[in-house]
Amino acid sequence: MNSDIFDQKMKEDWFLENYFSSFRNPFENGKSFFEMYLDKTLLNIQQTVKLTDNKEEILLHQTLKSKEENQDDFTGNVTVSKNNGMIKSLNAVYSYTEFGVSYFTEFSIEII
Question: Which residue among 34, 71, 86, 111 is least crowded, i.e. fewest CB within 10 A of its CB?
Answer without folding.
Answer: 111
